[in-house]
Design a protein that fits this description.
Blueprint (H helix, E strand, L loop, with lengths): L5 H12 L4 E5 L22 E4 L5 H12 L2 H8 L1 E2 L4 E4 L1 H14 L3 E5 L11 E3 L7 H11 L3 E6 L3 E3 L9 E2 L11 E6 L1 H13 L22 H6 L26 E7 L6 E4 L8 H8 L10 E3 L3 E6 L2 H4 L5 E2 L2 E6 L9 H19 L12 H9 L27 H22 L4
Parallel strand pairs: 1-5, 6-16
Antiparallel strand pairs: 2-4, 3-4, 7-14, 8-12, 8-13, 9-10, 10-11, 11-12, 15-16
Helix pairs in contact: 1-10, 2-10, 2-12, 3-4
């Protein structure tokens, strides 16, 4: 097992859970990447949100499927949850610490702190080195695959709770869902917003030699806020700064624009700027984001950063079990396979780990039906008909259509979830040997 991120830890746990010894190799802390800060495993880089909690949502369904299969990461996430309205967000330090302790203390998992520079050929191997795979190993993967694709990912800043001016902010969740203290909302009037927007699009960005900062190739979900702002004056108001479902108690009206802050830890001492991934220079982040009234004196404990990510042309290379087609004893998992999101990555690690065990024992692959969210993601990344392959997160659009679907959107989502969980339970019941 190579890599101790979300996919790697979940894969290692699933293998050990089935009585197989695992050697998990992780280059931290011997060698750190530009995006990592902690020596712990499963460090959450971009956000502490694991997306929607409702089972009737794509992200919520994915997490429920993982719970039912027996996910270590979901068990830890549920224990480390912090208020986030309708989302499941975690205290990221507590979460990574809990996962790290579970992995290091498992009697069948041997942790090796070292950098892997070549692909093993004498064992069943799962590679889950993530979007920041070290150059030496990345070169070997590129050679094996005949090339790879690249994109860039960005993280949002984090500020201290004490430095937020609550005279210019209010606590609430959209449409009062999830409690009235899940988010701190930083409202702006029309003039404040337009001044902020003008400063944002003109702000100086951090130089990068490995990306065109004016036109970076990034996940749409992690698009730097300054790039979004370039698309038009109102783009942010229909995106990360949308005011719908919120009412400013000072005015009694909906604000012109709102930045939401979500708690980073259980003690609510730090908050991240939701949707404000950025590649601005650090002084520019303080200057421009400080134009938001509630953040005029904000203390930044982490500035936003952009970093290089890599993913494979998986439809040409991987099967539904995440095995490498030309070397079936080799598996890939995590963001490098083209699944987008924390739990999506973990779910791929879950399947890769389970199938590594089956490969070792000479059993047929364990493949979930594509009516399940985990199965649909595996189906998408292995679908050879996909030509312009781009990363994909959990969404109801990748599930097979329902027979006679309800017209009501909410009822339709419930029907998708009900079908998925029924098919999952049936598949698990039929899989009696490992």
């Amino acid at each position: 097992m190579i890599g101790a991120g979300l996919a790697g830890c979940e894969a290692a746990y699933q293998i050990a859970k089935r009585g197989i010894r695992v050697r998990l190799t992780e280059m931290k802390p011997k060698k750190m990447t530009p995006a990592h800060r902690s020596e712990n495993f499963c460090e959450l880089i971009c956000s502490n949100s694991l997306k929607a909690a409702r089972i009737e949502s794509a992200a919520g369904l994915l997490k429920e499927e993982m719970r039912r299969i027996g996910s270590l990461l979901m068990e830890c996430a549920d224990q480390c949850a912090v208020p986030a309205g309708g989302a499941l967000a975690v205290d990221r330090e507590r979460f990574s610490g809990m996962v790290t302790r579970a992995i290091r203390s498992h009697p069948l998992i041997e942790v090796c702190e070292d950098e892997v520079t070549d692909i093993p050929e004498d064992s069943v191997t799962v590679i889950a080195t993530g979007p920041l795979t070290s150059d030496a190993l990345a070169e070997k993967i590129i050679a094996l695959c005949g090339g790879s694709l690249h994109f860039f990912d960005a993280a949002a800043p984090i500020v201290t709770a004490d430095s937020i001016d609550m005279n210019c902010a209010f606590t609430a969740s959209r449409y009062d869902k999830g409690g009235d203290d899940a988010y701190i909302n930083c409202p702006m009037n029309k003039e404040e917003y337009e001044n902020f927007h003008a400063a944002l699009v003109q702000a100086e960005r951090a130089p990068r030699h490995d990306v065109d900062v004016m036109n970076p190739k990034v996940y749409e979900g992690c698009m730097p806020v300054e790039i979004l702002a370039q698309r038009g004056l109102d783009t942010l108001r229909f995106g990360p700064m949308k005011p719908v479902g919120l009412r400013d108690p000072r005015t009694g009206h909906r604000p012109w624009a709102v930045l939401q802050l979500r708690t980073e830890n259980e003690g609510k001492t730090m908050y991240n700027l939701v949707g404000f991934q950025t590649n601005l220079r650090f002084p520019e982040q303080k200057r421009v984001f400080g134009m938001i009234p509630a953040l005029k004196e904000a203390e930044f404990v982490r500035y936003g950063v952009m970093h290089r990510n890599t993913f494979l042309d998986s439809p040409r290379l991987l099967g539904k079990d995440y095995s490498f087609r030309s070397r079936p004893e080799l598996f890939f998992a995590g963001q490098m396979t083209g699944v987008e999101g924390y739990m999506e990555s973990a779910s791929s690690g879950m399947l890769a780990g389970m199938n590594a065990v089956r490969r070792l024992k000479g059993l047929s692959p364990f493949v979930l039906p594509e009516t399940t969210m985990i199965g649909a993601l595996a189906g998408y990344i292995s679908d050879e008909s996909v030509k312009d392959f781009q990363p994909m997160g959990a969404n109801l659009g990748i599930l097979p259509a329902l027979n006679d679907p309800p017209r009501d959107k909410r009822l339709r989502a419930e029907a998708y979830a009900r079908r998925a969980l029924e098919d999952l339970e049936k598949t698990l019941a039929e899989t009696t040997t490992w």
